[in-house]
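Lecture notes, continued. The same structure-token format from the folding unit now serves as the input rather than the output. Read the line below as a description of shape only.
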């Protein structure tokens, strides 16, 4: 095999891996981002209109709706198993466990849960963007970090629309960009 052929094969493998990761990433970004924004705005409206703190229980609609939608709309093609894909999956599994733990802990301990949730999602998005060399995702996750700092300054119910805006910038916009880029690959 000539060196040019070897380089071509390696380039194709990297391109195929990136395409596979993008195909399997944009759907969860759009689903979880969309559900999170919808639920956030619903809770914000309920809290402003009714003032009932039990409206916060609606946060649990996110996994109730998100998991089944992810299963229904996941790509039917297999994810190319590489170290990169496996690492990203492991990172997001760990972040999911942390998100669940923080959410459950917020019932027993009073702390700024939206800050921690947004911070963890920003970290996951940043790492994902860096690992797959997708600058748009990396930059949008930096915006998520900035929004999370804003959640330390803003208090009460006013944190919710800021959180929703951060999710749009950090998850929905990159998800739409990934979907568009896949059409062009």
């Amino acid at each position: 095999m000539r060196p040019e052929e070897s380089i071509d094969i390696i380039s194709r493998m990297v391109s195929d891996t990136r395409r596979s990761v993008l195909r399997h990433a944009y759907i969860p970004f759009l689903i979880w981002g969309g559900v999170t924004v919808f639920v956030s705005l619903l809770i914000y409206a309920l809290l402003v209109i009714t003032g009932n703190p039990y409206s916060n229980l609606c946060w649990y609609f996110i996994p109730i709706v998100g998991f089944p939608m992810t299963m229904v709309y996941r790509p039917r093609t297999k994810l190319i198993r590489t170290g990169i894909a496996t690492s990203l999956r492991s990172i997001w599994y760990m972040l999911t466990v942390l998100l669940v733990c923080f959410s459950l802990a917020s019932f027993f301990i009073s702390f700024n849960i939206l800050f921690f949730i947004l911070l963890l999602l920003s970290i996951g998005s940043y790492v994902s963007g860096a690992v797959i060399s997708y600058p748009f995702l990396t930059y949008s996750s930096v915006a998520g970090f900035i929004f999370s700092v804003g959640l330390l300054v803003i208090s009460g119910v006013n944190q919710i629309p800021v959180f929703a805006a951060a999710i749009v910038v950090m998850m929905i916009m990159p998800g739409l960009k990934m979907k568009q880029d896949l059409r062009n690959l």
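Point for the exam: The chain has a mean pLDDT of 89.
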